[in-house]
């Protein structure tokens, strides 16, 4: 077990190193001068030279990458040219919105999808199964930003019970802050719930055909108990895999929804950095997104050892 964990951690570190090199290479080798992109074509040569020196662009590429990597490990991601603030502070401020939003969306997605998928598998080819199949297809087909617009029209414009956008900050109170995240979380959760429902249904169907489940039913165990005690827990490996992918998507792919609800999250920061040509912030945000995907996938791999006893035995 220890050797397996050591191997996984080493693979994680090597992957993060490769990702950081790729991100740095893409952001610094593509055609165009980052200083000219940030200042515009009307900037004077002296101003361009000063900014290039401030950003370290007059240094060799390999040295710049090494210094950037060392500073990133220390938590120093540089200073935003547009905001005039450390990028680490900007990331921390925006993560205080994006991470709770993604967490609420994941909880909603699991709460909707796992029961629907499991009950749909238990009643295969029934009317309920067909209804769940149609709903899951609908959730997958409908874009999240369109769902967001419908939610705003219904709950904010028509019923006036939920805020249509903005984020008051956590200092305004827990319920006030969470209330502003409910509609965007629902808009993000519904498409993911459609995917997770279908995955859960397929995984539970496969487990229901296993010998130990049929034996438990033959010994008189009620179908409900066999489903929730034996089938669903043993069907969690593919579900957890999809959950890991969904969480990273919700953190990195919520740009449209965050902009629709005017939420100062990480997606909006990436969009603003792109529009304002803030190369320093954009480079660090891309690195954070890529690193988050790698780390979450690593945690998902480790979770398999706890979910599947066969993998634990193989590891030993």
Automatic annotation (TrEMBL):
<dbReference type="InterPro" id="IPR035906">
    <property type="entry name" value="MetI-like_sf"/>
</dbReference>
<dbReference type="Pfam" id="PF19300">
    <property type="entry name" value="BPD_transp_1_N"/>
</dbReference>
<feature type="domain" description="ABC transmembrane type-1">
    <location>
        <begin position="95"/>
        <end position="300"/>
    </location>
</feature>
<dbReference type="GO" id="GO:0071916">
    <property type="term" value="F:dipeptide transmembrane transporter activity"/>
</dbReference>
<dbReference type="GO" id="GO:0005886">
    <property type="term" value="C:plasma membrane"/>
</dbReference>
<feature type="transmembrane region" description="Helical">
    <location>
        <begin position="95"/>
        <end position="118"/>
    </location>
</feature>
<feature type="transmembrane region" description="Helical">
    <location>
        <begin position="12"/>
        <end position="30"/>
    </location>
</feature>
<feature type="transmembrane region" description="Helical">
    <location>
        <begin position="138"/>
        <end position="157"/>
    </location>
</feature>
<protein>
    <submittedName>
        <fullName>ABC transporter permease</fullName>
    </submittedName>
</protein>
<comment type="similarity">
    <text>Belongs to the binding-protein-dependent transport system permease family.</text>
</comment>
<feature type="transmembrane region" description="Helical">
    <location>
        <begin position="285"/>
        <end position="307"/>
    </location>
</feature>
<keyword id="KW-0813">Transport</keyword>
<keyword id="KW-0472">Membrane</keyword>
<dbReference type="InterPro" id="IPR045621">
    <property type="entry name" value="BPD_transp_1_N"/>
</dbReference>
<feature type="transmembrane region" description="Helical">
    <location>
        <begin position="235"/>
        <end position="257"/>
    </location>
</feature>
<keyword id="KW-0812">Transmembrane</keyword>
<dbReference type="Pfam" id="PF00528">
    <property type="entry name" value="BPD_transp_1"/>
</dbReference>
<keyword id="KW-1133">Transmembrane helix</keyword>
<dbReference type="InterPro" id="IPR000515">
    <property type="entry name" value="MetI-like"/>
</dbReference>
<keyword id="KW-1003">Cell membrane</keyword>
């Amino acid at each position: 077990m220890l050797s397996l964990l050591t191997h996984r951690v080493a693979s994680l570190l090597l992957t993060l190193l490769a990702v950081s090199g790729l991100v740095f290479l893409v952001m610094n080798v593509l055609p165009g001068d980052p200083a000219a992109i940030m200042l515009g074509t009307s900037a004077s040569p002296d101003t361009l030279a000063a900014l290039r020196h401030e950003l370290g662009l007059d240094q060799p590429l390999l040295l710049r990458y090494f210094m950037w990597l060392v500073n990133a490990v220390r938590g120093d991601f540089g200073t935003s040219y547009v905001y005039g603030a450390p990028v680490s502070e900007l990331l921390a401020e925006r993560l205080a919105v994006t991470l709770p939003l993604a967490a609420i969306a994941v909880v909603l997605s699991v709460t909707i999808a796992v029961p629907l998928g499991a009950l749909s598998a238990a009643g295969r080819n029934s009317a309920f199964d067909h209804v769940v199949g149609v709903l899951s297809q609908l959730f997958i087909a409908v874009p999240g930003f369109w769902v967001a617009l419908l939610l705003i029209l219904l709950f904010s414009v028509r019923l006036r019970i939920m805020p249509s956008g903005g984020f008051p900050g956590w200092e305004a109170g827990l319920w006030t802050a969470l209330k502003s995240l409910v509609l965007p979380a629902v808009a993000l959760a519904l498409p993911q719930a459609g995917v997770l429902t279908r995955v859960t249904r397929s995984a539970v169907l496969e487990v229901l055909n296993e010998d130990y489940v049929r034996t438990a039913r033959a010994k008189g165990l009620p179908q409900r108990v066999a489903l929730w005690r034996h089938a669903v827990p043993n069907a969690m490996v593919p579900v957890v895999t999809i959950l890991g992918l969904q969480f990273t998507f919700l953190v990195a792919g919520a740009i449209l929804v965050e902009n629709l609800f005017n939420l100062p999250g990480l997606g909006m920061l990436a969009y603003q950095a792109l529009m304002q040509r803030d190369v320093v912030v954009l480079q660090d945000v891309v690195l954070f997104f890529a690193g988050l995907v790698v780390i979450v996938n690593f945690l998902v791999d480790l979770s398999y050892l706890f979910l599947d006893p066969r993998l634990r035995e193989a590891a030993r």
